[in-house]
Amino acid sequence: MNLKIFSKMENNGRVLWRKKNHLGFILVISAWLFTLISCVSNYPWANSVLLKVGRLNKPIQINLKFFVPSWVQDLAFSKNHKPADFKLKSGFAEVSSLITEGDTIEYSFSMKSGFASVLNPSRNRSGNYRLFYGPLLLGHEGIPDVDIPRNAEIAKADQCGFKINVTDILLSTVYHLMDPRVSQSSGYRKQILFRQTTN
Predict the structure, then answer these.
(1) Which parts of 100-189 are beta strand (E)?
(2) Please, what is the end-to-end C-alpha distance for the chain in angstroms?
(3) Number of other CB atoms surrounding residue 181 within 10 Å
């Protein structure tokens, strides 16, 4: 039995509910054998995804395929809190396991962070860069614009914020399209293009 997590589910699965950081789906293994699997994650603020196997008539061998984006590093899997083997193939990590009721499988990782070139350099000043933490575009609220040291490392500062090491610069994600503070009349401003400094 193959199941790809984070990709379109085939006829063998159907999403039952979504609520905040929980996702539940039913996995139909055969006409008489099925299980309920719940998925819990605080991504992108926590770097793990936990699958919990619900009621299951009998143990079954299953291959779970987890998408591995380019910004993931230090990938690890565990089954019932013990390290689990996996294989990387075609952008997915595959975990083969005999699952029983109550089992947990955790997919943990860290996210790459750093500078990325601007997408359209002909329309930007030379030397401008974007900052990312995994897939998240980061920005700085306030005036004046800030420059970022070339050797900067980005670390989580709190649940929703990030800090540049050896500076007092705080960053936050750019996901504010529906934020009522964001309007022309409010004067809201977030810097998303940064210049690098050598010190």
Answers:
(1) 104-111, 113-117, 128-133, 136-141, 148-149, 154-156, 161-164, 170-173
(2) 54
(3) 9
Position 20: which residue type? K
Radius of gyration of the chain (CA): 21
- Identify the structural domains of the chain with CATH numbers, from first to last: 2-111 (2.60.220), 113-197 (no CATH)
Is 121 strand, coil or helix? Answer: helix
Total number of residues shown for the chain: 199
Residue 175: CB atoms within 10 Å: 12
CA distances from 96 to 20, 68, 84, 136, 198 (A): 28, 16, 9, 31, 47
Mean pLDDT by 10-residue block, N- to C-terminus, for the chain (199 residues)?
A: 40 47 50 66 83 83 88 95 95 91 93 86 79 91 87 82 88 75 74 85
Amino acid at 143: I
Cβ partners under 8 Å of residue 58, min gap 6: 33
Place of tokens 């499988």: 105
